[in-house]
Amino acid sequence: MLINTVTDDALAWQETALCAQAGPEFFFPAPGSSTREAKQLCNACEGRLACLEYALANDERFGVWGGLSEKERERLRREGRARG
């Protein structure tokens, strides 16, 4: 039961996330499409950092999470491995 509470707390940001008001296609655009609007919405969202942490911890490889694209998150992961 404690595990569920921790999980619920860790995902609480999703309840107020601005992305919940847009559709998934907004954050998972077709290859070659712009991610600019999704990133702008992310940057206005108070759950952005929690979303980014979730994406990095769960190795989300597609879409815009926490205001970063797949390539940007991969670059962040590589930089973190190089430092640590």
Automatic annotation (TrEMBL):
Cofactors required: [4Fe-4S] cluster
InterPro entries tied to this protein: 4FE4S_WBL (IPR034768), Whib (IPR003482)
Statement: the UniProt record of this protein carries the keyword Transport: no
Amino acids binding [4Fe-4S] cluster: 19, 42, 45, 51
Membrane-spanning parts: none
Signal peptide: none
Key words of the record: 4Fe-4S, Cytoplasm, Disulfide bond, DNA-binding, Iron, Iron-sulfur, Metal-binding, Transcription, Transcription regulation
Domain 4Fe-4S Wbl-type per the UniProt entry, residue ranges: 18-75
Pfam families in the cross-refs: Whib
Cellular location(s): Cytoplasm
Main location: cytoplasm
Changes after translation: Upon Fe-S cluster removal intramolecular disulfide bonds are formed. The Fe-S cluster can be nitrosylated by nitric oxide (NO).
Cofactor binding remark: Binds 1 [4Fe-4S] cluster per subunit. Following nitrosylation of the [4Fe-4S] cluster binds 1 [4Fe-8(NO)] cluster per subunit.
UniProt function note: Acts as a transcriptional regulator. Probably redox-responsive. The apo- but not holo-form probably binds DNA.
Family classification: Belongs to the WhiB family.
Protein name: Transcriptional regulator WhiB
Organism: Streptomyces sindenensis
Gene symbol of the encoding locus: whiB
